[in-house]
Amino acid sequence: MSTKDGFTLAGKRAVVTGAGRGIGHSIALALAEAGADVAVTARTAHEIEQLVAQIREKGRQSLGVCCDVTDPEQVQHMATTLIEGLGGADILVNNAGNAGSHKFLNHPDELWHRMLSVNLTSVYYVSKAFVPTLVNQRRGRIINIASIASRVGGQYIAAYTAAKHGVLGLTRALAVELLPYEITVNAICPGYVNTPMTDASISNIVARTGMAEAQAREVLEKTSPQRRLIEPEEVAGIAVFLAQESSKGITGQAINIDGGSVMS
After folding, report:
1. Domain 10-191+231-256: top CATH class
2. Segments making up each domain of the chain, as ranges
């Protein structure tokens, strides 16, 4: 199939981390719908198996590998397996991540290290494993799922904010360094998204404040001028856009999708 048939990513091979649920799941399906073959990774085997089956039902090639992206040895094994399985890679989506909060007074060191490991160091490990293939091909797309916390500070999320600011810094550094190889590197910065990770944040608010669940959800919705959570399919649409050949002039950018709370 060609781009004339509406499959703008026909013939492309994509890898999505943290694809078991939420944003990563939606991105993997959207890339497949756009014509790409998609390999996926996450820590939970049954989620990956179900997603691989969904992608194959769309007529695309797919395979999955369980991987803890904070472990460099597991990451290297995952990259080797997926690159061999797809016959290469054209698009890398660094989506794996997690959130955690605590006031800075008596902030746990464990939370600091965990937030940096899963949200920032993982992007370094995965990118490092896939970049040689992209460089050898002299083309590629790297799309990092950052956060609106990459752009502004946030109360009680010092570690998460620092990690996500780091993702944006790494995005810009790689965009400069990989420019000669026709590899673009961009970040998507969502606000609160309607995903299991946000559900966990709502549960945390309920546990700490005694609010009703609906009230806690409304608190997060009101962080957006649109008074709603972003849907994961909205983030997936931006990822597909950035992966296209027509987006080759966009690199080193951070695209906000937060209902207008941060305008820059």
Report:
1. alpha beta
2. 10-191+231-256, 192-229
Pairing of strands 91-94, 62-66: unpaired
**DSSP assignment of the chain:** --GGGT-TTTT-EEEEESTTSHHHHHHHHHHHHTT-EEEEEES-HHHHHHHHHHHHHTT--EEEEE--TT-HHHHHHHHHHHHHHHTS-SEEEE-------B-STT--HHHHHHHHIIIIIHHHHHHHHHHHHHHHHT-EEEEEE--GGGTS--TTBHHHHHHHHHHHHHHHHHHHHTGGGTEEEEEEEE-SBSSHHHHHHHHHHHHHH---HHHHHHHHHTTSTTSSPBPHHHHHHHHHHHHSGGGTT--S-EEEESTTSS--
Express each pLDDT in 172-191 by its tens digit. 999 999 999 999 999 999 99
List the catalytic residue out of 156, 160, 181, 192: 160
What pLDDT, in 10s, does the model give residues 112-121? 999 999 999 9
In the residue annotation, 125 being an active-site residue is answered as no
- Predicted TM-score (pTM) of the model is 0.93
Give the chain's radius of gyration (CA, Å). 18
